[in-house]
């Protein structure tokens, strides 16, 4: 895909929008959201929804709904003329069925754009059809069965469905998951070359956010990126529908004029092997970015991150053990899957994951920064919180058992944020996921301190800090001084963590083994059971004031990083402002 790329037309500082809000050329909600969100603008439905209109008459039975007569009037013609209505009628959405969002987006694409396919492209975008169909895997099966369903919906019978196959492949290759302000994937959308020509990197210099009608109001910047010089003549602007979820690209580090713009197509906190597998399965390319090209023996920062995400402790020390490491992956996946099932037990989940983290499995133990350990911290935080709220226990200090579980849940969110922040110092492109972790840690710690006895003092809750002025950092974000603001916030978080960690980790065998989650320089000495059984000494917070201040600083730090990634008026930044 080297011939399709976008480059900066000028120098761009960190935390700047580099495109206006780009409308989609096709989009569709996931099946699970068809009855709760507007199919035209993706806004949540409230009150009485409006069904689609056909020939000036309301449809008596429909699988899609709209938030207003305006949205219904705008989208209803496309809903019927694209044969989306026929597809939904023949295969009604159900919780057990696979989402048809990709097929419906492909149908809409064929109806709204009349340009003919040219080689491996449609509407100037790569379809990847030949590569996607060549492997004979689940993707190729999905393409062929989906194309047949689309052809039937369009009244083409059982004949060849090459056009439909190309459209589905285009959606798979160029479609992006639309995420709402709660972080849920609610649908998919396809955008023209201004976004779709932006290539992937595991160490990207940009990210993106979605602009939904209910999310934010912001000025529209100029387009600050252009196709590379050798492909300007190939750029094609597909005709969009003029509504739907718009997308904005934003810099997450300084970008020089002429530098290629890149975003992430996959989870960057996965190890290299997992990223490569996912990229090949969906997009059929091998990533050759700087991070992926670094050898495991290299001393580069990117190499350190990927090595830490895969390290397993053996009797000979830390190493990457691929074959036997698969057993650890299967075990963690099974525990988490059981927890997330309808009859999942949070207490059993906590016991199994903490036993794995402490004792390991078949002589293998996870490094504290291993990607499975990071997944375990996320699950443990949720499991402890759910256990506290579903065990017929009150959620405050009047019930010590419930409060203890809530405290442990908050401690795991802090450990997760600290671990991710340690990796951020070596790989700045992790900023978006780290922002979310810090905001979650702050919210949990503030909830914990507010439900304690005695509660934090009024003095502690004045939202002021003489060292870092974290509130001012949120109100007037100085991206030009990004590193300085970040270091001040992290320094304050470290101080409050040292005063609070003994209290937060008390009673949890695994957490008590960490001397200071904000100082992970010692993780290379992380002991096995043979050379360390002693726990670190506990330092109990003098009052809940320290825990409250820690929570406020974590929340502010998460809000600061989120503002860099998504803008000061984004739902994420506004949520932090509301909580503070």
Automatic annotation (TrEMBL):
Q: Can you give the residue ranges of the SET domain? A: 105-266
Report the coiled-coil segments: none
Q: Name one Pfam family in it.
A: SET
Question: What's the protein here called?
Answer: SET domain-containing protein
High-level lineage? Eukaryota, Viridiplantae, Streptophyta, Embryophyta, Tracheophyta
């Amino acid at each position: 895909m080297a011939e399709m790329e976008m480059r900066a037309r000028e120098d761009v500082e960190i935390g700047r929008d580099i495109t206006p809000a780009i409308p989609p050329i096709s989009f569709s909600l996931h099946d699970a959201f068809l009855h709760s969100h507007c199919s035209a603008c993706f806004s949540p439905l409230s009150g009485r929804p409006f069904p689609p209109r056909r020939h000036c008459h309301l449809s008596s039975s429909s699988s899609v709904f709209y938030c207003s007569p305006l949205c219904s009037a705008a989208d209803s013609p496309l809903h019927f003329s694209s044969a989306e209505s026929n597809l939904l009628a023949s295969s009604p959405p159900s919780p057990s069925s696979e989402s048809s969002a990709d097929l419906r987006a492909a149908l809409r694409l064929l109806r709204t754009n009349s340009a003919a396919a040219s080689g491996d492209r449609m509407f100037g975008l790569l379809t990847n059809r030949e590569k996607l169909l060549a492997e004979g895997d689940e993707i190729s099966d999905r393409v062929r069965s989906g194309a047949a369903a689309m052809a039937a919906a369009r009244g083409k019978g059982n004949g060849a469905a090459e056009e439909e196959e190309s459209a589905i492949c285009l959606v798979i290759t160029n479609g992006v998951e639309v995420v709402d302000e709660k972080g849920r994937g609610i649908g998919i959308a396809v955008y023209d070359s201004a976004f779709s020509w932006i290539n992937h990197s595991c160490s990207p210099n940009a990210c993106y956010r979605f602009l939904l009608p209910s999310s934010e109001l912001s000025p529209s910047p100029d387009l600050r990126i252009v196709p590379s010089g050798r492909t300007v003549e190939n750029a094609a602007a597909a005709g969009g529908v003029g509504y739907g979820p718009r997308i904005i690209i934003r810099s997450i580090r300084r970008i020089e004029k002429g530098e290629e713009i890149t975003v992430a197509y996959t989870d960057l906190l996965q190890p290299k092997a997992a990223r490569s597998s996912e990229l090949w399965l969906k997009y059929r390319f091998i990533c050759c970015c700087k991070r992926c090209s670094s050898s495991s023996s290299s001393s580069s920062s990117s190499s350190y991150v990927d090595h830490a995400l895969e390290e397993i402790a053996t009797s000979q020390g830390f190493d990457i053990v691929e074959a036997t490491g698969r057993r650890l992956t299967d075990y963690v996946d099974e525990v988490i899957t059981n927890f997330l099932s309808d009859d999942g037990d949070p207490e059993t989940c906590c016991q199994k994951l903490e036993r794995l983290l402490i004792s390991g499995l078949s002589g293998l133990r996870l490094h504290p920064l291993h990607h499975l350990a990071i997944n375990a911290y996320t699950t443990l935080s949720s499991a402890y919180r759910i256990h506290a709220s579903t065990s017929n226990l009150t959620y405050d200090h009047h019930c010590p058992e419930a409060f203890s579980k809530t405290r442990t849940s908050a401690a795991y969110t802090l450990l997760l944020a600290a671990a991710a922040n340690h990796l951020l110092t070596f790989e700045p492109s992790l900023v978006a996921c780290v922002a979310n972790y810090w905001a979650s840690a702050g919210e949990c710690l503030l909830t914990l301190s507010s439900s304690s006895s005695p509660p934090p003092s009024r003095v502690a809750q004045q939202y002021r800090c003489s060292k870092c002025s974290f509130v001012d950092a949120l109100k007037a974000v100085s991206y030009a001084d990004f590193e300085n603001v970040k270091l001040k916030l992290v320094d304050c978080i470290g101080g409050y963590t040292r005063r609070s960690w003994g209290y937060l980790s008390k009673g949890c065998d695994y957490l008590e083994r960490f001397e200071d989650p904000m100082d992970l320089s010692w993780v290379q000495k992380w002991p096995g059971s043979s050379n360390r059984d002693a726990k670190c000494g506990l330092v109990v917070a003098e009052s809940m004031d320290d825990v409250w201040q820690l929570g406020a600083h974590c929340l502010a730090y998460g809000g600061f990083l989120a503002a860099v990634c998504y803008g000061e008026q984004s739902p994420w930044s506004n949520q932090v402002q509301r909580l503070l």
